[in-house]
Automatic annotation (TrEMBL):
Localisation per UniProt entry: Cytoplasm
NCBIfam families cross-referenced by the UniProt entry: nadA, PRK09375.1-1, PRK09375.1-2
Gene: nadA
Reaction it catalyzes: iminosuccinate + dihydroxyacetone phosphate = quinolinate + phosphate + 2 H2O + H(+)
Organism: Alloalcanivorax profundimaris
Name of this chain's protein: Quinolinate synthase
Length: 322
């Protein structure tokens, strides 16, 4: 514990010396979220992280999250230095959507408006007409559908089919999934709901349709947190990464939050409701990056041509979500 508090002290000092700020996602470990809060950084969903990073006056951003969040921050603020505790923190959606295959898919469907989830590489974003996060996905697709546009959606098939069901739009989906949300199981959730009759069920739309169907509220991380604070229920069953419990518990200390069941345990369970890449963000590697002027090689660089192309759909996302 002494060691951890020394890390925290030193991180605070180095953030000041380097004119840097922490930008953390709700899925990172509680001590990272707490540190971001204490030091004037943000803890947020992926849309809010993008906006915070762009608007904050600090010259250096330390992105506590996964790679696409660091890349998005860099694209929106090319003049800032952007570091991550480790560049190895990726995302199964990003991995599952390689740029060449994606470009070929787009080429096969030139009549469709290309909408990609924020959880993609800069190269995939560069090919898109729109970038979205889960907090604005339904509204945006509704808007495009009303304009008569047909959609090519990538990479998350569960979010894609949720959006299609909600809007009735013509949505052609890429076949990708999040390894964390994919593990939630409908039967286990129904059993747990039966054991907690007064509980509200909160589900992130990266979960399978059978799980989404059981939800009282479906939404992005910040929308689920809002529901947890505003709804009258005493108990909530939550189907998303367990990192989110930190903020829910903080904002609603008298309520009970229960983890939704995943497919297996131990070796059977690849993620167990905690993203293995989000979990790579720790005090030690955050400090290491801040101690070294070159950030131990964990600085984000995005090819300027790609960045320029990716900026357009990202700007549209931020304007639409404003
Ligand atoms: P949101 O924070 O936008 O809901 O995204 C969830 C996610 O999977 C980020 O990894
Ligand atoms: Fe990607 Fe899923 Fe991890 Fe989010 S939780 S970063 S979508 S693998």
């Amino acid at each position: 514990e002494d060691q951890r508090s020394l890390y925290r002290q030193r991180i605070k000092q180095r953030l000041q010396e380097r004119d840097a700020v922490l930008v953390a996602h709700y899925y990172t470990d509680p001590e990272i979220q707490a540190l971001a809060e204490e030091t004037g950084g943000c803890v947020a969903d992926s849309l809010e992280m993008a906006r915070f990073g762009r608007d904050h006056p600090a010259s250096t951003l330390i992105v506590e999250g996964v790679r696409f969040m660091g890349e998005t921050a860099k694209i929106l603020s090319p003049e800032k230095r952007v570091f991550m505790p480790t560049l190895e923190a990726t995302c199964s959606l990003d991995i599952g959507c390689p740029e060449d295959d994606f470009a070929a898919f787009c080429d096969q469907h030139p009549d469709r408006t290309v909408v990609v989830y924020a959880n993609t590489s800069a190269a995939v974003k560069a090919r898109a007409d729109w970038v979205v996060t889960s907090s604005i996905a339904v509204e945006l697709i509704e808007h495009l559908d009303q304009r008569g546009e047909k959609i090519l959606w990538a990479p998350d098939k569960h979010l894609g089919s949720y959006v299609r069901d909600k809007t009735g739009a013509d949505v052609l989906c890429w076949d990708g999934a999040c390894i964390v949300h994919e593990e939630f199981k409908a039967q286990g959730l129904l059993d747990l709901k039966a054991a907690h009759p007064g509980a509200a069920v909160l589900v992130h739309p990266e979960s399978p349709a059978s799980v989404v169907e059981i939800a009282d509220v479906v939404g992005s991380t910040s929308q689920l947190i809002k529901a947890a604070t505003e709804m009258d229920n005493d108990t909530f069953i939550v189907a998303t990464d367990k990192g989110i419990f930190y903020k829910m518990q903080q904002l609603a200390p008298n309520k009970t939050f229960v983890e939704a069941p995943t497919g297996g345990s131990g070796a059977q369970c690849r993620s167990c409701a905690h993203c293995p890449w989000m979990a790579m963000n720790g005090l030690e590697n955050t400090l290491a990056v801040l101690e070294d002027d070159n950030g131990c090689g964990q600085e984000i660089f995005v090819d300027p041509t790609l960045a320029e192309q990716a900026m357009k759909p990202l700007d549209r996302m931020l304007d639409f979500g404003a």
